[in-house]
Amino acid sequence: LSVNMSLYFTVMRLTKPTLFTNLPVTCEDRDLPGDLFGQLMRQDPSTIKGAETLMLGEMLTLPQNFGNIFLGETFSSYISVHNDSSQVVKDILVKADLQTSSQRLNLSASNSAVAELKPECCIDDVIHHEVKEIGTHILVCAVSYTTQQGEKLYFRKFFKFQVLKPLDVKTKFYNAETDEVFLEAQIQNITTSPMFMEKVSLEPSMMYNVTELNTVTQADKGESTFGKMSYLQPMDTRQYLYCLKPKPEYAEKAGIIKGVTVIGKLDIVWKTNLGERGRLQTSQLQRMAPGYGDIRLSLDLIPDTVNLEEPFDIICKITNCSERTMDLVLEMCNTSSIHWCGISGRQLGKLSPGAFLSLPLTVLSSVQGLQSISGLRLTDTFLKRTYEYDDIAQVCVVCPFTSNEC
């Protein structure tokens, strides 16, 4: 509140009310108070009839203090200028600015002056602002007007408040051999009240398509892994998983991407008490592209399960990640369990920078169980340099016959 000459200035923060709670006091019938406590609770208008011992009542209470403001919420305030004098004032201009650590924002709905304000009349305004910065914020409210004597007066008030961080977001990246990127987002509620997580989505960059892995499909219906009521209690943490795959126009270049690449950003929407909504978008998430050296060898096709001592086909993708042309020779070395079918030491030809080659190969396994595909060697005849590739992938080898026959 501020009083200055003719005008009375009021600023109030607008927030949702809270449910009224009381502390029920009970005793046994044989105790000295008898039914006295019960009668008092039944006469209390804030209790629920028939359930007087519940702490939660049917009434709402208005905020008794300024409360907390969190990043991503909408700050709303009511501003009222009342003419407390017996004279008419003219040219009243009410201005509201919000000063943050980085900028000053004008929140006034109108920047034009009111021609006159009669006694006992007021000028009301409601301002809204989506909070996008943490730290100290200062609401600067200023009023200028002209008295009947022609004197121009001006006054202002400052209201300082802190914007707190509602969520703690941590991310982890996992790179797959198929150029897919898995993102794990850990979101922790660091406020003192529960949140209803309305939406947690990943907006990918132009290079990727995203698939959310946070639902379980049952009977053609997708159900969230967190249940139907997605509440996040104070200090609780929840993990969200996303799979990003390069778009077709970028897939061929995925093997030679180096340095830092932009993945996308998280969009988080939540609701607190009585449906107050908050929204938070992270900055662009970046990851360091894995280094593949001069040559990258990956698998485009491999079966999950194969039969013992039966040949199966795989398709290898060889990408030249260097800045020079290579002349490659392929050698296939058998291991104790994996045997290559075909000619070893064959010429693959020249491979220019950034180009790739799809190479079909045939393999068989002589040992059951989970076996690693190993033993490929690529030699660049220009530099006489050999690149070894072991544990490229794994395949499950099973016996097609009965256990006695195997």
TrEMBL record:
Belongs to the TRAPPC13 family. Part of the multisubunit TRAPP (transport protein particle) complex. Residues 9-163 form the Trafficking protein particle complex subunit 13 N-terminal domain. It comes from the Eukaryota. Residues 303-397 form the Trafficking protein particle complex subunit 13 C-terminal domain. The lineage of its organism: Eukaryota, Metazoa, Chordata, Craniata, Vertebrata. One of its GO terms (cellular component) is TRAPPIII protein complex. Residues 167-290 form the Trafficking protein particle complex subunit 13 middle domain. Pfam families: TRAPPC13_C (PF23643), TRAPPC13_M (PF23647), TRAPPC13_N (PF06159). This is Trafficking protein particle complex subunit 13.
